[in-house]
Fold:
Amino acid sequence: MIDDHKDVSYDSRKGKYRAYIFVNKKRKYLGYFTDVEDAVQARKDAELEYGSHRTTSRMKDLSDMDFGDLKVIRLSDKRGANGTRLWECRCKCGEVIYVLGASLRAGYYKSCGCNREEKRDIGAREHEKTDRVDGTRKTALKAKLHKGNKSGHKGVRWNESRQKWTAHIGFKGKQISLGYFSEKEDAIKARKRAEEKYFDPILNSDTEYKG
Ligand SMILES: [Zn+2]
Structure:
């Protein structure tokens, strides 16, 4: 440690300063620097990027902010893949998810993924009459991918806090969780099986779909 500069050391063999930061209890090196100030700056930048066990005040406070249907509750103790602390958010539907601040600010997340579209105009209501079969909207079953969906597959999402893929399916106004998966392919398969089970009987029903 150099003077008061945390996590900056002098490498006498190279004649340079070296900065590092602890991420998930592992030392991550940030490179060699000729100028000590550059090393200190690199350490400061890394602290912002990875979050610090010591200084949370440096992170932009997102508490109480709204991102679509999500309200930020607080900075949680859960951490994402690179050690950055995740924000606890509550969706309008009640589900709690943990998200990177950067992802929130970038607009990747607007809801927990429940993706409920509530159209209130008359046209939509009329459409709904012909569209609804046994309490389930056919168009909803055929709906395009949610904006925040980064998996490329409807109903399949990456869970940052668990570091696993999750699959779910919405049916008759309920979100049915299909479990957590290490492999994305398994989550996609689970979702596909659920579509066959829940959706196919409705999509193949006699009531004609008028899109
Ligand atoms: Zn939700």
Residues 8-50 form one domain. The two ends are 67 Å apart (CA to CA). The chain has three domains: 8-50, 60-112, 117-211.
